[in-house]
Amino acid sequence: MSTENNLQAIIAHAKEYGFVFQSSEIYDGLSAVYDYGPYGSELKKNIKDYWWKSMTQMHENIVGIDAAIFMHPTTWKASGHVDNFSDPMIDNKDSKKRYRVDHLVEGFADQLKEKGEHDKANGLVASMEKMLAEDAFADLKKMIEEHKISCAVSGTCNWTDIRQFNLMFDTKLGSVTDDADTIYLRPETAQGIFVNFLNVQKSARMKVPFGIAQIGKAFRNEIVARQFIFRMREFEQMEMQFFVRPGTEGEWYKYWKDERMKWHLSLGLPQEKYRYHDHVKLAHYAKEACDIEFEFSFGFKEVEGIHSRSDFDLKQHQEYSKKKQQYFDAEINQNYIPYVIETSIGLDRMFLLVLSHAYQEETIHKEDGTTDSRTVLKIPAKLAPNKLAILPLTKKDGLPEIAKEIMNDCKQDFKCYYEEKDSIGKRYRRQDAIGTPFCVTIDHQTKEDNTVTIRHRDSMVQERIAIADLKNLVINSINQ
Ligand code: ATP
Fold first, then answer.
1. At the fourth CATH level, which superfamily is domain 386-478?
2. Which of 139, 266, 273, 346 has its CA 20 to 30 A from that of 26?
3. Which stretches in the chain have pLDDT values below 70?
4. Is 303 in the pocket of ligand 1 (CB under 6 A)?
5. CB distance 216 to ligand 1 below 6 Å
6. Would the CB of 420 count as within 6 Å of ligand 1?
7. Which protein residue's CA is at the shortest distance from atom 31 of ligand 1?
8. Mind giving me the DSSP string for 213-270?
9. Domain-by-domain residue ranges, the chain?
């Protein structure tokens, strides 16, 4: 299946089976804003919970917070977002279409690669990164023109100058618009952590090194929103700031780079689909930075960023708020502003990663020589929306009663789904399509010997087990 078809098939599947809907669809939707349906919201919550647990439960020195989306406007002056949170963009004068410059050049480089011109493509991207790092916009425009990089809509190279476009949404706080203050919808969750650094450190009695984790909404007025939920204007981030003693940031950066990759692989996702991308263009305060990239159907793309941010953010807040942001380290008897390692992952992007990797269209070769097909979501059991589907073979003979008993026993521990309509084959297919790892069928033999047939989603293998063993089998697979 082609790249485009693959993504289109996933988008259609996500809609049909209640994972993701276009926001306000009945009004023709709102660009780059999406809603999560019954199974989507479960999957999203399971990803969140898995991340939250890995941070705040598996690390004794990390605690969580839940800060507000609105923050004092000075926060964004201090953080540099008012002045610097912008993307260089360029408009095509004929089509009026606006592009992010890096996307335009990377798209052209991809075309070169398809023609086998890898060196030229890599050289072009490297030159672009260097020019962006130096804000050499006039040179970059010249390079775009020299290579005749054209607009996909008009086909022309009639470009405006490259300009910066701030990505923050603003709004007014207060009832009378005239004298209300302009505030911003936060473009990242991290600043809520920085401004609460001392509140958390003191109230939870944390000692450096320690981390603060947060999951929450962020908003960016992205110039080019594309690839479904990969780039949205309203999205969720899962961020953790880890505060360390100055001088130890190098080793902690390595630790978190490694630790975060392990988290991804612990979901059973294949190592060869992942790679690190070390940043060439570093923010002036950053010491080191890299992205964890995953190979989507549309290429290797960033899912998570790991940044060694020095003491930049706390220092800035100290300066703008005039409140000391220092920590007293009793071990070395010194006051200092801690250095920070940040891990920042997009929840929606992780959702797309899980969904698109799980999505498979399979041909089944049956024993009688005929073939059949199925669409299956091979979602890791711990993330699957439903863990167990409970299916009585018929609606009579006391089978639903036994099925309901199993349901009542299991639903305390994990999410179950009960269904008695349609043939077993059809019911299996529906559960495959929403990624349920186990189906259990209750039949007449169950009444005689208290056994049921359990069917495994990925292998489609069926086996007979005792009802008494069912719950543990599912729990073990979720905890794996
Ligand atoms: P990109 O280069 O893709 O715009 P970024 O480098 O600006 O991303 P960060 O500011 O490092 O991203 O944000 C951390 C994470 O938040 C990203 O790795 C990504 O997973 C997620 N993220 C950022 N912007 C969006 C968006 N518009 N929609 C969905 N997720 C996003």
1. Anticodon-binding domain (3.40.50.800)
2. 346
3. 1-5, 175-180
4. yes
5. no
6. no
7. 346
8. EEEEEEE---SS--TGGGS-SEEEEEEEEEEE-TT-HHHHHHHHHHHHHHHHHTTT--
9. 3-70+184-355, 86-166, 386-478
